Here is the input.
Amino acid sequence: MNAIVKVTFGSFLLGSGLVLLTSGCVTNDVQSISLMDEIENQIPMPPGAFELQKYGRSYAFSDDGNVIGHYMIPIPQMSADESCSILTIDLELVDCEPEALDEMKDYIENQVKAGERRWLDDFRQLPIQDDGGCSFIEIKYVQTTKKFSSIKCNERF
Here is the structure.
């Protein structure tokens, strides 16, 4: 089989590597809560975005000490009878390995829920998504100026 291009879970079409959630240390101390409040009280959502409370929001400091935020519309829970299929580079639809389905179910169970937020110790632990338009937003916030250097929705394939 050739490389995986798309993975389908139930009614969701997810690109290979589209959603990545790594386990990481979550810190929700007074300083990080205050900084998340500061960001969320002034963020202008980009055109096409949903309201802030529709997103699960994750934050971390970047290497330069500024803040990176990843906002994701959570994937709904899968029903017990949903299956998983992979679309290969040859556009052939094949069943997922059981491990892929288990990983997806685990991701959905552990994702940041809509309206919730968390602060991670390492920006490399932020969830990522390859496409999806405004279902995924990345923000960059400069603490010294208290301004956003970037707020953007993901591109679409």
